[in-house]
Specification:
It contains 10 helices and no strands. It is mostly helical and 165 residues long. The protein folds into 3 domains: 59 residues, no CATH class; 31 residues; 70 residues, no CATH class. The N and C termini lie far apart (82 Å). The relative contact order is 0.06.
Length: 165
């Protein structure tokens, strides 16, 4: 069977038959070609596919709706792949862990700052206001310096301690 004869039987051009043959459509019989087209082409592209897939064609009869759904599916799959890749690269973190670490870090800073008056009470007795202010400034700076030295390991230990309580 020639490509022209097959094209006439399918209702498509010889060039289209050639393109489909390159994609894997059998050219030895009309029945085999129709079956391949029904299986491999979008329902709106062939009468055979529409006839074979009445149920599928009803859901995908609107070509734009089909492509929109396909696009959403591919976008969702790509997003999931990006999330998995970021997780593998350790570029993602769990929000709950971050919240617990921030809470623990803020608790440490709060406790350090609230203990400043108790630590300085005996030292500021009888000193000038400027000297007392300098002592307080130094103690607050020490607390902030300690806070800035918190690293992942220290935060992990703080979070672990917070979970045990």
């Amino acid at each position: 069977m020639t490509l022209t004869e097959l094209g006439n039987a399918l209702g498509i051009s010889k060039g289209q038959v050639s393109k489909l043959a390159d994609r894997g459509m059998p050219t030895d019989s009309v029945e085999a070609a129709r079956a391949w087209r029904a299986k491999n082409l979008h329902p709106s592209w062939s009468e055979e596919a529409r006839a074979a897939g009445e149920g599928a064609a009803a859901g995908a009869g609107n070509s734009s709706a089909f492509w929109a759904a396909k696009t959403r599916k591919e976008a969702a799959q790509a997003e999931l792949a990006e999330i998995e890749l970021a997780r593998e690269k350790r570029a993602l973190c769990e929000i709950e862990k971050v919240h617990r670490a921030l809470y623990a870090a803020h608790r440490v800073l709060r406790d350090q700052l609230l203990s400043v008056p108790n630590r300085l009470a005996a030292q500021v007795v009888g000193v000038t206001p400027q000297a007392a202010a300098e002592l307080m400034r130094g103690e607050i700076r020490r607390c902030l310096d300690e806070f800035s030295q918190l690293n992942d390991q220290a935060l992990g230990q703080l979070v672990g301690e917070g979970e045990e309580q």
